[in-house]
Specification:
Helix content: 25-40%
Largest sheet: 7 strands, mixed
Structural class: alpha/beta
Number of helices: 19
Length: 657
């Protein structure tokens, strides 16, 4: 455990325990009732979202003003016996999060809406530890009610000062490993965790790391049960559930830490119409973006523990009236965003810059199909277009643009596309200029390195769906039945004349990605067990050691580098489209309705297809398999021979008298 450093934990807890324990909380000696209201993965979606309706058309859902009204209605049904919690990723998803550090809109609104407790998700760290620290301090300095924050498996570095501001902010806010609240005579212990998958999605939390959820879960539950003597343990988990049970972290947690009564499961954006039961643990999940308010009604007794009396997900639909106070605050926040963040880009929050005659695929559907999409084609085409536009006469041809589908957070639906919609599609991250939004960077790879990078699509994306690649300037085929990390069959790259030509292993190609993709290189190396490695180079062939040096400059005439944000690149591209219907608004080309065949799976078990053009990985696997077979054959031969010798030794001597 030394490698984890010092865990902010029990010392902080003991310092602030009186704040959270309540006065003279009493154990439930008889049956008692409790209503847990819950959300997760709100991602700064203060305003309602437009979504496709079954059978056609669109509807609106979510929005904090309507969510607040629903919360109030549910509380009226359970006076004095309700608990409102959130399981992380409160931020990162809309233009409102651009003021995360300076205004802390998210925590302030949650406080006004009456949230009792929340935990932190991976996206809440995207402004780096110092940015999260600034947000916590801002929220506290503005006064007013704020939710308790619990984070049990955060581990601070022993010798890296970059997380020192966050460690101090955890003490000041405070953020504690657990909290104890009392409702209706019930002592409730709450703790929060970050799962492994979420931590892998969180390279910008460094040097902060996250301890194993089972190990920490056991330790905290032991404290809550045996020291705090709580009646109910609630885990606010940012780990998630998945269809593949062996990778469903919250189900694993429930199975290995039996003392948890309720897990509110965030991160995977799962909608659970019914709770998952693992022994006595109840797992609940309500999707994302405030589309639903989860309502879990429990009957609790000392003998039987917690029993589900009822469970439902209340849809936050257009029929729900708005809380006018929350709605007014959101409009005020919109003005602040326009004044501080959008002013430099010359855009307004609701400004329509393009329109589409067709719906593009939703993030959930894209993650399910694991394939190239029209939206992915458009986003990566936008990268190449915008780099060419800003570099002008000094442009050096970009052969290839690549992004991961997990970075494409939203979609475009039939109708007008506003600036806020464009930002939602490419919302994550912080630039190296300290402004919200990932910048575009370019570097060079050899053809062989490029082929290896495309293996992310073939061998990592099936396991981690967010790693699904979307590309521009390259077309490739792959056989999913070949040996992992050696599945790419053919690659062609677009030259400056527009023609696609076969990839040349030794040729140098210019590649454009966002900063997140660059930051995930270590994850790719780890996930591929070192089989996928490449060395990004600058235009002179030297290894890139500082990503700042290879950022795309949006204004070469200004001092320093003006980062070209990926969402701004997409907005520029949308504005470049022709107006086909004469209403003065650019129209999305019909060609983006469907993918155009940039990555194509060609499944085949034909031995010729399995081994044609195979690289060293395949031959190494074959050699290893051959060695294993030889060893097995020798073992079998030895066993047979030994058995034969023993049989001869036991054969009776017929010549004896």
């Amino acid at each position: 455990m030394k490698r984890y450093g010092v865990l902010i934990g029990l010392a902080v807890l003991f310092c602030f325990q009186p704040i959270f324990s309540g006065d003279a909380a009493v154990r439930a000696d008889a049956d008692a009732k409790l209503t847990i209201l819950f959300t997760h993965d709100l991602h700064s979606h203060f305003l309602p979202d437009r979504v496709p309706k079954t059978g056609g058309g669109h509807a609106t859902q979510g929005g904090y003003a309507r969510l607040a009204r629903l919360i109030g209605q549910e509380r009226e049904k359970a006076p004095g016996r309700s608990l409102l919690v959130d399981a992380g990723d409160i931020a990162m998803g809309t233009l409102f999060h651009t003021e995360f550090r300076e205004e802390a809109f998210e925590l302030r609104l949650m406080g006004e809406m009456g949230y009792d407790a929340a935990t932190l998700g991976n996206h809440d760290y995207e402004f780096l530890p110092a940015g999260l620290a600034a947000m916590l301090r801002t929220a506290r300095s503005r006064g007013g009610r704020l939710p308790l924050l619990v984070a049990s498996n955060v581990v601070f570095s022993q010798n890296d000062p970059r997380d020192a501001p966050l460690k101090a902010a955890f003490m000041e806010y405070p953020v504690t490993p657990y909290a104890v609240l009392e409702r209706n005579g019930i002592r409730i212990g709450l703790f929060g965790i970050m799962g492994r998958d979420a931590a892998d999605d969180n390279p910008f939390a460094a040097p902060v790391t996250f301890a194993d959820i089972v190990e920490r879960g056991k330790a905290v539950v032991d404290l809550l049960r045996n020291k705090e003597k709580v009646d109910l343990v609630v885990c606010l988990s940012h780990a998630g559930t998945k269809a593949v049970k062996s990778r469903s972290e919250d189900e694993i947690l429930a199975g290995k830490v039996p003392g948890i009564d309720v897990i509110v499961s965030g991160h995977s954006h799962t909608v659970l119409p019914e709770p998952i039961r693992i022994d006595r643990t109840i797992i609940v999940s309500a999707g994302s973006y405030g589309a639903y308010l989860g309502v879990l009604n429990l009957d609790i007794s000392r003998e039987a523990g917690a029993r589900v009396a009822s469970y439902r997900l209340e849809k936050v639909s257009a029929e729900v009236p708005e809380d006018t106070g929350i709605a007014k605050k959101i409009e005020t926040f919109k003005g602040i965003v326009e004044q501080r963040y959008l002013r430099w880009s010359g855009n307004r929050h609701d400004q329509v810059i393009a329109e589409t005659a067709f719906d593009m695929l939703s993030p959930a559907y894209r993650q399910a199909i694991l394939a190239e999409t029209g939206l992915g084609d458009m986003v990566t085409d936008a990268f190449r277009y915008a780099v060419r536009q800003v570099e002008g006469k000094n442009h050096r041809y970009v052969h290839i643009a690549v992004t991961a589908d997990g970075i494409i957070r939203d979609t475009f639906l039939t109708g007008g596309i506003a600036v806020a919609d464009v930002f939602k599609v490419l919302s994550p991250g912080l630039g190296m200029d300290d402004y919200a939004g990932y910048p575009l960077i370019t570097f060079y790879l050899t053809g062989e390195e490029l082929r290896r990078m495309l293996e992310v699509q073939t061998s990592i994306a099936p396991i981690k769906h967010g790693a699904q690649l979307q590309v521009s300037g390259v077309r490739f085929t792959f056989n999913p039945h070949r040996v992992p990390f050696d599945r790419v069959v053919s690659v062609t790259v677009q030259d400056e004349d527009g023609a696609f030509r076969p990839l040349q292993p030794d040729k140098i190609y210019r590649v454009c990605v966002n900063a997140y993709m660059a930051g995930m290189l270590n994850f790719v190396r780890r996930a591929s067990h070192g089989l996928i490695q490449f060395s990004p180079k600058d235009d002179k062939g030297r290894p890139v050691t500082d990503w700042k040096a290879v950022r795309v400059d949006a204004d070469a005439g200004a001092a320093g580098i003006q980062e070209l944000k990926e969402w701004v690149a997409l907005a520029r591209y949308l504005k470049s489209f022709p107006d086909r219907n004469g209403n003065g608004v650019p129209d999305l080309p019909e060609g983006y309705r469907n993918p155009d065949g940039r990555s194509v799976a060609v499944p085949s078990w034909n031995p010729v297809d399995l081994f044609r053009g195979a690289g060293w990985i395949t031959w190494a696997v074959i050699a290893a398999a051959a060695v294993v077979l030889i060893i097995l054959a020798l073992v079998v031969w030895w066993i047979v021979r030994l058995a034969s010798r023993r049989a001869k030794g036991r054969k009776p001597n017929l010549n004896s008298p």
